[in-house]
Specification:
This protein is of the alpha/beta class. It is built from 12 helices and 13 strands. It folds into 2 domains: 186 residues, Rossmann fold, CATH 3.40.50.450; 142 residues, Rossmann fold (3-Layer(aba) Sandwich), CATH 3.40.50. The chain is 37% helix and 16% strand. Strands 3-2-1-6-7-12-13 form a 7-stranded mixed beta sheet, with helices on both faces. The longest helix is centred in the middle third of the chain and has 22 residues. The N terminus is likely disordered. Bound molecules: 6-O-phosphono-beta-D-fructofuranose. The site of 6-O-phosphono-beta-D-fructofuranose (F6P) has 9 residues, from loops.
Amino acid sequence: MRALNLNRETPTMSRPQAKCIGILTSGGDCPGLNAAIRGVAKPAISDFHMDVVGIEKGFRGLVENHARVLHLEDISGILSLGGTILGTSREKFHKMPLPNGEVIDMTPRAVETYNRLGLDCLVVLGGNGTHKAAHQLTKHGLNVIGLPKTIDNDLAETDFTFGFNSAVTTAAEAIEKLYSTAEAHLRVMVIELMGHNAGWLALHAGIAGGADVILIPEIPYDLDSVCQHLTARRRRGKWFSIIAVAEGARPKTANSSEEKKDKKPKKKAENGDSLTDADKGVSTAVAHAISQRLDMDTRVTVLGHLQRGGIPTPFDRVLATHFGTYATEMLAAGKYNHMVCLRGSEVTSVPLEKVAGRTKLVPLDHPLIKSARLVGTNFGD
Ligand code: F6P
């Protein structure tokens, strides 16, 4: 990754533009958040002599003024720590749930906390929802810098988010482990990975783990195609297979948004009846259909939050550190209202308005899809 190039904007280290900054983590956690917090706070404190305020539990902390000054000892030894030392939540200041179930707009309280703390800029570490909210804050006069994190890798304008590589590593390892037991029992193992809208995680982990079939939300699947692929494998003497499926994958018939809504797995059976296969999730539906059609023994693994837990990979530690330190140089230069991003091997930044409200899906002509097909992977199409 190349060094930061802020040209004439970079001030002398002794006179940073931002003197007091806030930092918060928002949305689902992921490995690398603490590395990024350290990447921002360490140079901010040591090199630029800024005051750094940690805001706890995401935007709720901003609304309720849950803040504490971060000192060097607070960020020591956290580089490889999973989770986030600041805590996180999915709540947004403009839709804050109250204990009585009411949801209210607390934007004025968030702005008030920012001003009361005397912040020059707020650094938010988050995914799509967080960056959309961050952009809203800029419209209320706050200075914000975003750092892209999510295991889904679905943020626009950045090639990679931190957390993604760690999740791919966990998921690929799980797929690999399923192979020996699949082969021993001659079973079809269906593994469900996270990714409601975007299939980046299933695509990368599926390729890395050598899955025979990869089903992602961007490519509606046809069970006939999947079954034909498994049958062809049987003809070649492969009586076992692995199917990696993103939780948001949908069958071909569920094309319109209305149909998609209908097919979304429900958390609970609404009338108290037991859950149907479709209700239990896409992996159960796929496994059940295969066992019915091909008379093959199937098993389902839902990897769930294991994909978000644990220590960040070295790649994510490096990326999060680079994003964090780059953000601090932007703070020193007074370059606000941007999200730090990765373009190729270069860390740079992009205006928040170009990111807000956009989701980066896997393009159908993505080279990795072609590459996976060339090694014999079926995408259910
Ligand atoms: O962080 C994004 C994500 O990993 C999605 O892929 C997944 O559907 C979701 O989080 C689940 O998060 P939670 O259980 O925290 O709501």
